[in-house]
Amino acid sequence: MNRSPRALLRPFGPLSMGLALLIGAGCSKPSAPAPDAQAPAAQAEREAPDPLAGIEARLGLDAAVLPDRAPPARAKPVEPDPKPVEEAADGRPTYGPGSVPAEGDPLAGYRGRTHVVDPGGGGDFLNIAAALGSAGSGDRIRVRPGTYTDPLALTRPVAIIGDGPVEQIIVEVSGANIVQSTAVRALLKGLTLRQTGGEPARYGVDVREGRLELRGCAVQSASLAAVAVRDRGTVAVVDSRLHDSRQSGLFAYDGGRAEVVASTITGNGAAGVEVKGSGQATVRKSRLHDGGASGLFVHAGARATIEDSLISGNRLAGIEVKSSARAEIRRNRVAEGAQSGIFVNEGAGGVIEENTIGANGLAGIELKSGADPVVRRNTFEGGTQSGIFVNQGALGTLEENTVRGTGLAGIEIKGGTPKVLRNTVEGTTQSGIYVHAEGGGTLEGNTVRRSGKAGIEISGGARPTVVDNRLEGNAYQGVWVLPDGEGTFRGNTMSGNARGPVRVDGAAAGRIEGDLPIPKPKAPPPPKPSPYDPPVEPPK
Questions:
Q1: What's the CA gap between 195 and 244, in Å, rounded?
Q2: Secondary structure (3-state) at 21
Q3: CA quadruple 458, 464, 465, 468: dihedral positive or negative?
Q4: What b/e string do you get for 178-208 counting C-beta neighbours within 10 Å, with b at 16 or more?
Q5: Of 417, 418, 446, which is closest to residue 432 (Cα–Cα)?
Q6: Which of 194, 180, 183 is nearest to 159 (CA)?
Q7: HSE of 165 in the Cβ direction (CA atoms, 13 Å)?
Q8: Cα(382)–Cα(319) distance, integer angstroms
Q9: What SS3 state is found at 129?
Q10: Could you give the C-alpha distances from 389 to 124, 371, 480, in angstroms and in order?
């Protein structure tokens, strides 16, 4: 029976209450969890150590821009007047001026009837699927605590709202998507969604058309991604948790669009957020941590923006952009990953600016194989390798960055040809800027000081153009050119370097152009007399 006994007897007046209780005793219904059944798990989750605790302190970061670990209580905003949904130029449903974006009041567009789902029989329906069958456009469905096992197909504008603690309102499905949405717009709020596996493999939430907003939800899938969006679909994930899925937390592909705001994406087997094909994603004020691959993975020509977020503890790069994809990466903290903080590869590009990147297993940023982003005004601190690594034919414009305390060189150029402009490199373990393996490019207007070796080191057939740099207080020379290095030098200033301003070894002296003051080799000292030589008689 889909409708509850109370709903069936409501038209017969007040005396129906007693009959409802009698009938309800014999009805088949989903089991409601005992109040204490969920408590131990919920308490254990609350008491578990936070894997992000102390990252900001270890890196000296200000976490003010990041969301609280628990979603903050919010005052109810003034409801805007709902506007009709409009069609965009590409045929997608969009919102007109004054309508409800992800940051607005989520319920403003749903002012129809309210249907109550209660597995104990105290509402209008016993399960959510039955309520969906009766709901009209703009209606609200309020769901009381219980475990529901029917897949949900959203085909019209409705809001499904949890009426109780989110961990006690569970939709658990095997062998199917928990939610499949093709509605022009829809809202899920305050629900726990669990795809438990089974055949065929499915997503937790699958958005194929229209716009679905997930607000204050927890979603996981034992089969595929927690949330997928494709084709003509758009999904907004707000104040939610996408966690412990077999594949990605969020997968946007084949034209799907995604927005993630103030959410946590953690513990997934693949990337936290994966964007592929003509997919697009925007991530703001969120945490992407402890995933089985990259925190954000953008590839196959996709587009993504990530801002004001913390990306930490992932098994691959914190952020990876490849295969001609484009990404805008601004004001994030990227830390404690097993590989590079940011990895841009295979002709990818975009803008990487004002991020703090440190304590990663490889380079802070690696550019490789034709990558050509703008890397601007970032701070690189610590890390086991170089702050910026330009590798295997990469390009890129590196300007006004600060690199300090890295385990290898501050900026390493291996076979790439970037523009390195007006950066500050200091306190690195090895040379401040290291160009080798036939690397080149332009080094102009940089300040390099207190490096563990030379200010600028050149070897391995590299040939950079080095102009107007300041090289101060380095442990070796200001410039060190090894025998197989070369370059063009103009207008550089050097002071306080422990082993002098310049060292040019062997054949490199004949390949240096410009005004580099190449020191003349010292004449060898005369040989010392041997005791076995015959004595030299003085002239008579």
A1: 11
A2: helix
A3: negative
A4: bbbbbbbbbbbbbbbbbbeeeeeebbbbbbb
A5: 446
A6: 183
A7: 9
A8: 18
A9: helix
A10: 62, 12, 19
User: Mean pLDDT throughout 508-527?
Assistant: 85
Helix (H, G, I), strand (E, B) or coil at 232: strand
Tracing tokens 């928990």 back to the chain, one arrives at 178
Amino acid (1-letter code) at residue 496: G
CA dist 24 and 382 (Å) reads: 65
Tell me the sheet residues that pair with 148. 171
Q: Per residue in 182-228, pLDDT tens? A: 999 999 999 999 999 999 999 999 999 999 999 999 999 999 999 99
The token pair at 399 is 């300007």
What is the spatial distance between Cα 71 and Cα 66, in angstroms, rounded to a whole number?
11
Measure CA 157 to chain center. Answer: 31
- Kindly report the three-state secondary structure assignment for every residue of 282-330: EEECCEEECCCCCCEEECCCCEEEEECCEEECCCCCCEEECCCCEEEEE
Q: Pick the closest to residue 390 from 344, 348, 431, 321 (CA basis).
A: 344
User: Hey, what's the torsion of the CAs at 90, 96, 102, 104, to 10 degrees?
Assistant: 180
As a whole number of angstroms, the distance between CA 144 and CA 29 comes to 14
- CB contact set of 398 (below 8 Å; sequence gap of 6+): 375, 376, 388, 390, 411, 418, 419, 420, 421, 423
Amino acid at the residue 170: I
Q: Is there a contact between 459 and 485 (Cβ–Cβ < 8 Å)?
A: yes
Contact present, 431 and 408 (Cβ < 8 Å): no
Reduce the secondary structure of 359-423 to three states and give it as a string.
CCCCCCEEEECCCCCEEECCEEECCCCCCEEEECCCCCEEECCEEECCCCCCEEEEECCCEEECC
CA 15 to chain centre: 58
* 307 touches 286 (CB < 8 A): no
504, two tokens: 């040019």
The token pair at 256 is 């799907």
pTM for this entry: 0.83
Q: How far is CA 348 from CA 88, 341, 343, 390, in A?
A: 28, 16, 10, 13
- Partnered with residue 376 across adjacent β-strands are 353, 399
Instruction: Report yes or no: 339 and 313 within 8 Å, Cβ to Cβ.
Output: no
The pLDDT tens digits of the residues spanning 36-46 come to 433 444 444 43
Place of tokens 């670990």: 69
pLDDT, mean over the chain = 86
